[in-house]
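Job type: complex structure
Entries:
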Amino acid sequence: MNKYSIFNLARQAKNYHQNWQAAWRSPEPKKHYDVVIVGGGGHGLATAYYLAKECGITNVAVLEKGWIGGGNTGRNTTIIRSNYLWDESAALYDHAVDLWGGLSQELNYNVMYSPRGVLHVAHSVHDLQEIGRRGNAIHLNGIKSKFMTPEEIVKMVPYMNLDCRFPVMGGLFQQLGGTARHDAVAWGYARAADALGVDIIQNCEVTGFDIKGGTVKGMATSKGKISADKVGVVVAGHCSVLADMAGFRLPIESFPLQALVSEPVKPCVDQVIMSNGVHAYISQSDKGELVIGASSDLYTSYTQRGGFDVIEDTLQAIVELYPALSRMKMLRQWGGIVDVTVDRSPILSKTPVDNLFFNCGWGTGGFKATPGSGHVFAHSIAEGNMHPYAAPFSIDRFNSGALVDEGAASAVAH
Ligand SMILES: Cc1cc2nc3c(=O)[nH]c(=O)nc-3n(C[C@H](O)[C@H](O)[C@H](O)COP(=O)(O)OP(=O)(O)OC[C@H]3O[C@@H](n4cnc5c(N)ncnc54)[C@H](O)[C@@H]3O)c2cc1C
């Protein structure tokens, strides 16, 4: 694999950049793999990378029905934070924040992690109580953050209209929260996994599982049958479809979630600013586009679009909070399919089928967890037992009642 460096850039420039290797190979699938990962989003690719890098399992394939990163990974608004309420979530999401810090160096690929800070604003006494409780909880877990008064907020975000219909009464600011470039995360993991021997197979849809005596033996795909010792399914919005193929049900509902970006402008939004109360959040990409999102649509669907009413409500909230943006033109809108659990926490779990593992239920907020999720899922698959950070997120919690309720921390917020 070509190492990406200033020296190599200069060397390749002499040949008019004609000799760069493809970032990853496009092999035909083998008949058998030690581990097959279904789903070539960030979580699946990260799992394959850590399997090869840290667990010594390199006979691995990632099967992706479309193109890698074409699911939610390439459609999200890239917000990274770890200010969740419960210890179990703080451990998992903060593990990811730790890995984000060195990810570009680890992968030799610039994932553009930008810890610019994430501010949650409160619009009611209830909101203030919620961020107060959550802020204290994350402090106990050693996650740095601070409460902000309206006066402090207006100093940091002078263009925000605090005196709007639902006035801004305070905020919770996580300094190490921020953004990263979503496509680069998929491409970086794919390239690094490929270099360790992982086969990345695009346009290869899994259409059924081969299960004998309660153990998964392989799968039917649009490129033929493939056998595997272990299978990890990481297909986000389609996890119920794949669970159905394996003969069990998941407590998941899949909803469209939309986002939109404006025309590019000079740097003006320095942080990520989220408002659960009026249902809108905003940040600015390095290209200059304002990246805007809201809560999911109200109906379940597998379409990667969404309803116009959500866009209208979101933009009303944005204009109310930031009147200066009222004449910005919106350039693009799109949707993804998010997989939502009742407690708004993910599922990282063994399943009723032996050697078949599921990683899903990240809903509206899994991008931030990509490195941590892939890391703990790889170790869980390799060892056949769930990693301690993953164990609380088993499917069994929906029977036992040991839910990890992050409804307030997720809400509109991603
Ligand atoms: C509009 C929007 C905004 C969001 N904003 C944020 C945010 O700001 N911060 C945040 O943390 N999270 C956010 N999220 C959520 C985040 O994008 C997801 O939780 C995360 O990207 C999930 O990654 P993944 O790798 O599990 O899934 P995906 O990237 O969706 O990958 C799953 C892959 O599985 C493939 N697949 C499906 N079925 C099959 C099959 N039968 N065979 C083979 N392959 C199959 C799909 O094609 C897809 O590529 C947002 C999501 C959306 C839609």
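Summary: The first strand starts at residue 32 and ends at 38. The pocket of flavin-adenine dinucleotide is lined by residues 38-44, 63-66, 70-73, 75-79, 205-206, 234-236, 238, 242, 257-259, 293, 336, 338, 362, 364-368, 414 (CB under 6 Å).
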